[in-house]
C-alpha cells in the first residue's frame, strides 16, 4: 500500500504501532556511498568539470568543444572515484572487511527444489567498483592529455598538425622527402650493423 507523501501535506496515519512515516522528497536514507546516485554524482561532476575549465594548469585543448564529451565523462568518473574514496575513508576498514551478507535464493526446478546460499562482502564490491572507476578515470585523463606523457604526445601531435596546416604544398613535399631520407638512412645503418 502506498501512503500519501506526509511531507507534502498529505494525511498519513500509521497502519500498525511503531510504523515510521513515509520518506519525504530528497531522502537519502538508503544511500550507502552515493556513487550510483545521479543526484550526488551529477552535482560533483559539474563542479569538477568547471574546476578543470578554470584551472590554469589545464591544457588549452581541453576547453575545445570537441573535447566536451570526454571532459564530461572524465569529470563524472572522477566524481565516482571521489564518492567511493570518501565512503571507504569513513569506514572502520577491519570491521567492514569482515562484514558479510548472506542471502538465500530458492530456485524451483522440474524435479524438486534447489536452494543456493551466497555470501558477499559489501566492501569488496566497493573496492572493485573503485578500481573500475579509477581505471576509467586514468584512461580518460590520458585521452584528454592530463598526464605528463599524454600531454607531451598530444602537444607534439597538435604542433605537427598546425605546422602542416600552415605549410605550403612545397614545404610539405620537402618535409616528406626529408623524412623519407632519414628513414632510408636509418634502414641502411641497421642493415650494415647486422652484417
What does this structure look like?
It is a single chain. This protein is mostly helical and 195 residues long. The chain contains six helices and two strands, in the order αααββααα. It has helices at residues 38-54, 68-89, 93-98, 122-144, 148-166, 169-194, and strands spanning 100-109, 112-121. α1 packs across α2 and α2 (68-89) runs antiparallel to α4. The longest helix has 26 residues, at 169-194.
List the topology elements.
Layout: H1 38-54, H2 68-89, H3 93-98, E1 100-109, E2 112-121, H4 122-144, H5 148-166, H6 169-194
Antiparallel strand pairs: 1-2
Helix pairs in contact: 1-2, 2-4
Instruction: Kindly report how far apart the N and C termini lie.
Output: 87 Å
Structural class: mainly alpha
- If helices are DSSP runs of H or I spanning 4 or more residues, what is the number of helices? 6
Largest sheet, described in full?
A: 2 strands, antiparallel
Total beta strands: 2
Task: Provide the low-confidence segments as ranges.
Answer: 1-7
Mean pLDDT: 75
The rough form would be described as elongated
Percentage of residues assigned to helices: 55-70%
Strand order of the largest sheet: 1-2
Strand content: 5-15%
Helix and strand pattern: HHHEEHHH
Radius of gyration: 29 Å
Task: Report a brief summary of the structure.
The chain is mainly alpha-helical. The protein is 58% helix and 10% strand.
Amino acid at each position: 500500500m502506498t501512503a500519501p507523501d506526509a511531507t507534502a501535506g498529505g494525511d498519513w496515519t500509521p497502519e500498525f504501532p511503531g510504523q515510521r512515516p513515509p520518506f519525504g522528497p530528497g531522502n537519502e536514507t538508503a544511500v550507502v556511498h552515493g556513487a550510483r546516485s545521479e543526484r550526488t554524482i551529477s552535482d560533483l561532476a559539474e563542479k569538477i568539470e568547471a574546476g578543470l575549465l578554470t584551472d590554469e594548469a589545464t591544457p588549452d585543448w581541453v576547453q575545445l568543444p570537441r573535447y566536451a564529451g570526454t571532459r564530461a565523462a572524465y569529470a563524472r568518473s572522477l566524481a565516482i572515484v571521489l564518492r567511493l574514496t570518501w565512503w571507504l575513508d569513513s569506514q572502520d576498514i577491519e570491521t567492514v572487511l569482515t562484514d558479510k551478507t548472506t542471502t538465500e535464493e530458492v530456485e524451483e526446478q522440474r524435479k524438486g527444489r534447489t536452494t543456493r546460499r551466497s555470501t558477499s562482502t559489501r566492501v569488496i564490491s566497493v573496492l572493485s567498483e573503485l578500481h573500475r572507476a579509477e581505471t576509467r578515470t586514468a584512461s580518460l585523463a590520458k585521452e584528454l592529455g592530463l598526464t605528463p606523457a599524454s600531454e607531451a604526445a598530444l602537444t607534439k601531435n597538435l604542433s605537427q598538425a598546425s605546422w602542416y596546416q600552415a605549410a605550403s604544398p612545397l614545404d610539405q613535399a620537402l618535409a616528406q622527402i626529408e623524412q623519407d631520407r632519414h628513414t632510408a638512412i636509418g634502414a641502411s645503418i641497421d642493415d650494415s650493423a647486422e652484417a
